Amino acid sequence: MDKFNSNQKIKDIVTKFPKAAEVFKKFKIDFCCGGDRPLIVAINNQDLDEEEILDSLNTIYENFANNKTNKSNKSKDWTSIPFTDLIDHIVNKHHAYLYENLPLISELLTKTLRAHGASHQELQEVYKLFHMLKMELDSHLIKEETVQYPAIEKYEKSKSIVDLEQAIQVSKELETEHTEAGDILKKLRKITNEYIIPADACNTYKSAYEKLEDLESDLFEHIHLENNILFPRLYSLKK
Ligand SMILES: [Fe+2]
Ligand SMILES: [Fe+2]
Is the pTM of this model over 0.90? Predict the structure, then answer.
């Protein structure tokens, strides 16, 4: 493969090489809802060093390609595997992650707000934003599992245009919900000052912030798989 360049779209880089997500996370480049932009646009907007980012991307790619274990155990190509396999992966990895961690973070944040809310005013907002996100995700996951994914699986069997159109219509709604979730994550990152743990934080506080940052990371990968791979694959079938 040729080297990565900054005129490529962010989502295309992550689709071709999923490990690129590590670099984008490090430099806080949004690759899920903001993935439909050439890399250079994000670099300029965020005042980042183009050379440093391209070097990081190309270095981890070369290391990955040269590693014999990776050669024999290639990661799955999400752009061509059956829809049902991609959906299974999303549900088993990313939905399962949310089912486990959303209630846990809620509990940690409730305790943290009670113990530290008086001395850390921002915790009120963190608490509210997180629960808004949780509420949206709870219904979003249900919509995906009971409406969207079954519609895709129905289309995969029937190949009927009516089934495809149904699946596409739901995708548009889900994309809007992804953008809303992404906006809340941006606000959370800002209000927590990039998840920096205050010096007087107890273990619960620390754990709440660590888990919140982890949630952001997992959601970015999850939304990337849907917005940039699963849904565009459906749209391309209609052409
Ligand atoms: Fe999902
Ligand atoms: Fe989703």
Answer: no
